[in-house]
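[step 3/7] inverse_fold.run input=structure_tokens len=215
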């Protein structure tokens, strides 16, 4: 059996990994490291991930960082359980993943977070924050328009890693008081109704024994 271990809880990026694992019905070990705690910067975790960011995943003795890459690797390895990265839509899923990681996460929500709530660490930058709020809405229009025809998921009837990536950012946006178009709110409600998402929230909040599976 494949040995999987995840470092990181209570984080949007860690949620992506827990969510993928939960959709796939896998059991795994978790080290419940949180951001901005002494455990995150301690030598023990620096030995796992020199940048001491979360999440990190180890699978069959090999470690990976970057939540999107981890989710895709899991999808590729375990597609016989559930196909979260359909071959026919390979590049489309990648397109959505890079869009989420770059446009919604790195240049919008993370800017708002770093220079808003976390400004004591990263510095005040009100112009950057208000610019990022506008940029978020402009970029979110791409996802809004893809879902405007009433399709349940980004690819249509097939739920994929693209939805895990986008869904993680919608939850994050909700907590940052960022405007979210109604089409994306409805989609977010569908995502929250998935048992895999509910289990992922439990795992990401440290309320689940992920090695045993189930909540
Ligand atoms: N691009 C990375 C970002 C990882 C990341 O920044 N994680 C945050 C928590 S959500 C973190 O560890 N922040 C603490 C720090 O930057 O020191 C990914 O998607 O995995």
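[step 3/7] decode complete -> sequence:
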């Amino acid at each position: 059996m494949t040995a999987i271990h995840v470092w990181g809880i209570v984080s949007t990026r860690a949620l992506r990994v827990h969510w993928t694992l939960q959709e796939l019905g896998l059991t795994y070990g978790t080290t419940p490291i949180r951001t901005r705690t002494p455990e995150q910067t301690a030598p023990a975790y620096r030995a796992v991930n020199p940048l001491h960011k979360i999440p990190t995943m180890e699978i069959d003795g090999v470690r990976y960082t970057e939540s999107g890459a981890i989710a895709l690797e899991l999808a590729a390895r375990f597609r016989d359980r559930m196909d979260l990265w359909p071959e026919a839509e390979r590049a489309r899923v990648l397109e959505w993943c890079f869009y989420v990681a770059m446009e919604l996460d790195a240049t919008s929500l993370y800017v708002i977070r770093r220079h808003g709530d976390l400004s004591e660490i990263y510095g005040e930058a009100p112009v950057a924050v208000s610019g990022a709020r506008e940029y978020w809405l402009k970029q979110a229009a791409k996802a809004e328009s893809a879902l405007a025809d009433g399709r349940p998921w980004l690819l249509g009837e097939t739920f994929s890693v693209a939805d895990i990536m986008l869904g993680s950012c919608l939850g994050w946006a909700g907590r940052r008081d960022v405007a979210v178009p109604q089409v994306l709110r409805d989609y977010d409600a569908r995502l929250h109704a998935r048992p895999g998402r509910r289990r992922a929230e439990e795992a990401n909040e440290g309320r689940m024994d992920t090695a045993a599976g189930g909540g």
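[step 4/7] annotate
The pocket of glutathione is lined by residues 11-13, 35, 53-55, 65-67 (CB under 6 Å).
Strands lie at 4-7, 29-31, 56-59, 62-65.
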